[in-house]
Design brief:
Blueprint: H1 3-14, H2 18-25, H3 29-36, H4 44-54, E1 73-74, H5 82-106, E2 123-125, H6 128-141, H7 152-158, E3 162-166, E4 175-180, E5 186-192, H8 197-212, E6 213-215, H9 221-233, H10 236-243, H11 257-267, H12 271-280, H13 286-298, H14 317-327, H15 333-340, H16 346-363
Parallel strand pairs: 2-6, 3-5
Antiparallel strand pairs: 1-4, 4-5
Helix pairs in contact: 1-5, 2-3, 5-14, 6-9, 8-9, 11-12, 12-13, 14-15
Length: 364
């Protein structure tokens, strides 16, 4: 990737126009245009001013390209503004290039690719029953049983799926999935960080569904991924154990707020997703499910559910690899900070402070 392309990428990440960047870097907008089109090259002095204006290290402009074109699959793509989409893609590409770079430093012979589909995946599905079976079989392949998944992000990272989070304020974006790497074989899931943890977990499980199942003709891909997410987070056996009455008692008449809140805390899946799960499995009727959703909307719970919020999950593998390379002297401290886009010493301190804040919020 040329210096001009890097300038354009950093500008898009910051959401700046060429005129805005030119003003901050004390050059003309015409000069920025020529830099980005590689007609002219910035001097070292200008490059330093561009680095400061864009909030990136000078090393950013000469980093080799290691990511193919990113085409994210958004659940709400039609409503996503073009400018914000461009900024998001540029931000994801920057993070992913740094991720792949540290993998290649530590494991040059593997090319940074450690993911393999379990046997039988990705799987073609033609019905919601097939989707349920696929979610259950993936749990079996990954030896998860029917227990709650303590940390979904770490689970995916342990299985070779790259997971990233972005600090987006745009409510039109929850998560996206795509393949990266030179040959496009590295699965990547990127989720929004500034949302409740239960919503984030469901969005990530939804994207996992897009990676693992291939809906046939007549089966809506989004609805299938939605069903996969619920079935993967809460298998049918677990849902029936938690919700069903004694054998032969028939449908549940209602679901109490208390049990929905308790199950949300136990499984990290929202109260509303539990209602969908109960309805999909025939534990409650369609009418009762509709009634519960009306109650949630009337109380404003469809936007913010009652009780303590589930904490968002944060990927750790990239930071661990950078610190591993630093400890083994495979990279310098400066290189580590360039890869992390921050201070090596402050990263764990900041994470600890954020954990304390979350813990205090849960105790209130």
């Amino acid at each position: 990737m040329t210096i001009g392309e890097r300038i354009k990428q950093a500008r898009k990440i910051r959401g700046m126009s060429q005129r805005e960047l030119a003003k901050r870097a004390e050059v003309s907008a015409q000069a920025i245009s020529k830099y980005e089109r590689d007609i002219n090259a910035p001097s070292s002095a200008v490059l330093l001013r561009l680095s400061k204006a864009l909030g990136v290290g000078v090393e950013f402009f000469v980093r080799p390209r290691s990511v193919v074109a990113i085409i994210p699959d958004y659940r709400r793509r039609r409503a996503f503004p073009k400018k914000r989409e461009a900024a998001l893609i540029a931000e994801i590409a920057d993070w992913l290039e740094r991720y792949i770079e540290i993998e290649r430093i530590l494991r040059p012979d593997e090319g940074g690719l450690a993911f393999e589909y379990p046997p039988g995946f990705p799987r073609s599905v033609t019905s919601m029953e097939d989707v349920e079976a696929a979610a259950l079989d993936l749990r079996r392949a990954w030896d998860l049983g029917s227990d709650p998944i303590e940390n979904l992000v770490h689970l995916l990272e342990d299985r070779g799926i790259k997971v990233g989070v972005v600090d987006s304020e745009d409510d039109r974006f929850d998560a996206c999935t795509f393949f990266a790497g030179y040959d496009g074989r590295a699965p990547v899931v990127v989720a929004r960080s500034k949302i409740p943890g239960d919503r984030q977990r469901f969005s990530i499980a939804h994207e996992l569904g897009h990676l693992m199942i291939e809906p046939g003709e007549g089966l809506d891909a989004e609805k299938a991924a939605h069903r996969f997410a619920g079935a993967f987070l809460v298998p049918e056996k677990a849902a029936r154990f938690e919700l069903e009455l004694a054998a032969g008692k028939g449908l549940r008449r209602d679901l109490s707020d208390f049990e929905l809140l308790a199950l949300k805390q136990k499984y990290g899946m929202s109260m509303q997703a539990w209602i969908y799960r109960a309805k999909d499995l025939g534990i409650i009727s369609e009418e009762r499910g509709t009634g519960l959703f009306k109650k949630f909307r009337a109380r404003g719970w469809h936007k913010r559910e009652p009780g303590a919020q589930i904490s968002s999950e944060w990927p750790m593998r990239f930071e661990i690899l950078v610190n591993l390379a630093l400890a083994e002297e495979a990279i310098s401290k400066r290189r580590a900070e360039e890869l992390l886009n921050g201070s090596v010493e402050m990263a764990p301190v900041k994470a600890a402070e954020e954990d304390e804040i979350r813990a205090a919020a849960l105790c209130r």
